[in-house]
Amino acid sequence: MTRRTVRIAMNGVTGRMGYRQHLVRSVLALREQGGLDLGDGTVLWPEPVLVGRREDALREIAGRHGLTEWSTDLDAVLADDTVDVYFDAQITSARVEAVRKAVAAGKHLYVEKPTATSLDAALELARLARDAGVKHGVVQDKIFLPGLLKLKRLVDGGFFGEILSVRGEFGYWVFEGDWQEAQRPSWNYRAEDGGGIVTDMFPHWEYVLHELFGRVTSVQALATTHVPRRWDENGKPYSATADDAAYGVFQLEGGAVAQINSSWAVRVHRDELVEFQVDGTHGSAVAGLRNCRVQHRSATPKPVWNPDLPVTEAFRDQWQEVPDNLAPGAGFDNGFKAQWELFLRHVFLDEPYTWDLLAGARGVQLAELGLRSSAEGRRLDVPELTL
Questions:
Q1: For a surface tag, which of 113, 312, 358, 378 has the fewest beta carbons within 10 Å of its beta carbon?
Q2: What pLDDT is attached to residue 289?
Q3: Are 363 and 356 spatial neighbours (Cβ–Cβ below 8 Å)?
């Protein structure tokens, strides 16, 4: 085996997602398994170069994981010809300028979503990357999670017959920050910093719906701020200027309708923090991040509405768990890591890869139209994007 080093500039690893999912559970996890076997006699060895604005935090993270390279000077890192890939998990409002610089430096790009705060900027990045001839990918992690992989298996196998509708519930209670620390950073609740649940979650719903059920052709949404006053990381009160809940209806190519509620102001009464129910003529399924349950039409009970009598049926018990169906001893890998592996194989082996900056722009487009739909109180068409 020949070991080939790939140097990855990782910008934003001091944040929750950048650190936990991308650095620790993806790039460092690849190192722990001995690198990425490309299958051609080459093992790819990722070498992260940590980038950010907080010197102390970068130094501490590097020391914790035995890493030696970190910098607060993005320009210097991008000028290093030995750096192959630029990864961005910064705050959304800082992303476009940094990605522009990385394209100009000729780096391959792997970018968190949303890729930009406006559709125009997202399309600009996609065009720049195309014209520069660099490989580019956007994080679309949820389609790599066990529950949705099982759901896709059902779709591909024709389990549902004609798909009629998709219902999604996402969210949890994010503490205000006064008497208990908030689980999300305060910028998420400031529109001027690129915050808001529509900007954050509609890009997820776009690729989940697009990959599993078909392109979104129209959107009607209501975005609101249920909790208008919060406290930041320093205990200082501030006014929430961004939406913390959104209720969306999406028409899909082919006629199916998706309804997805997203909220950081809801208490969980679900098996998982996100669940999707898919109903079709031949069967239904409920999928979360890890599990998926089904009910075929041949085993569908016949409930009768009678509000005068107590319910005697245990409705959840009438569903069947979808098995993993993996090789003996195998398990589902971390979804972020799985996509990192596919992206690196795309970069070094030119294997097909569809989750690019244009796909990322579709997510930005849906978020932008969702906010506009809410502001104008009407349903809006979602035009198909091209470069």
A1: 312
A2: 93
A3: no
**C-beta of residue 182 within 8 angstroms of C-beta of residue 231:** yes
Task: Give 261-318 as a DSSP string.
Answer: EEESB----SSSSEEEEEEESSEEEEE-SS-EEEEEGGG-------TTS-----GGGG
What's the pLDDT at 312? 87
**Is there a contact between 27 and 340 (Cβ–Cβ < 8 Å)?**
yes
Give the number of other Cβ atoms within 10 Å of residue 180's Cβ. Answer: 11
Structure-block tokens of residue 68:
């030696």
Does this model's pTM top 0.85? My answer is yes
Whether the link from the prior residue into 301 is cis, omega within 30° of 0, is no
List, run by run, the mean pLDDT of 10-residue segments along the chain (387 residues).
95 94 98 95 96 96 96 98 97 94 98 96 98 98 96 98 98 97 95 93 98 98 98 96 98 97 97 97 97 97 91 92 85 94 97 97 98 98 96
AA identity, residue 75: D
Are the beta carbons of 339 and 141 closer than 8 angstroms?
Answer: yes
* Cα–Cα distances in angstroms (integers) from residue 339 to residues 106, 203, 227, in the given order: 22, 17, 35
CA distance 312 to 154: 30
Two tokens at 350? 């030119």
